[in-house]
Structures are given as structure tokens and as C-alpha cells.
Amino acid sequence: MATERRCAKCGGKMFFSEDVYSGYLHCLQCGSTREMRPLGALDEELEATLRPLRQAMGLAPERSLIR
């Protein structure tokens, strides 16, 4: 399925496909492929990046608020 996303490499149209493991965006013009990561993995990566900054500013909670 074609999407409105454009390829970072050539500016071509991207289309989405998926298999058992993940989803992918493929460029129709140059063939570049990007793996789509699950939102949960992105949330964990963002939290890992922000945690040291919050601790440095004294904003980090002592325990996680999410259960």
C-alpha cells in the first residue's frame, strides 16, 4: 500500500509491507527499506534517553508511575 511518506534518500514514494517479525517501508524508486519499530520500543528508548536528564534536573520519580 502506498503512503504519503517520502524516502529520505531520494524523495520517492514509500509503500508499506509486513511479515511475521515487523513492518517495513520500501521506496518505489530506489528500493531503500526502513523497518517500522513498534511504538512500545520507541517509548522505552525515549524513556531511557530522558531518565538521566530528569535525574540531573531532580525531576525523576523514585519509582515508576506506570504499572
Architecture overview:
The chain has 67 residues and is an alpha+beta fold. It has one domain (2-57). The chain has 1 helix and 4 strands. Strands 1-2-3-4 form a 4-stranded antiparallel sheet, with no helix packed on it. The protein is elongated, with a radius of gyration of 18 Å. The mean pLDDT is 79.
Record the SSE blueprint.
Layout: E1 2-6, E2 13-18, E3 23-27, E4 33-36, H1 39-57
Antiparallel strand pairs: 1-2, 2-3, 3-4
Share in β-strands = 25-35%
Mean pLDDT: 79
What overall form do the CA principal axes indicate? elongated
Rg over C-alpha atoms, rounded to the nearest angstrom? 18 Å
* Unreliable stretches covering 5 or more consecutive residues: none
Quickly count the helices: 1
Largest sheet: 4 strands, antiparallel
In short:
With 67 residues, the chain is of the alpha+beta class.
List keywords for this structure.
alpha+beta, 1 helix, 67 residues, 30% strand, 28% helix, single chain
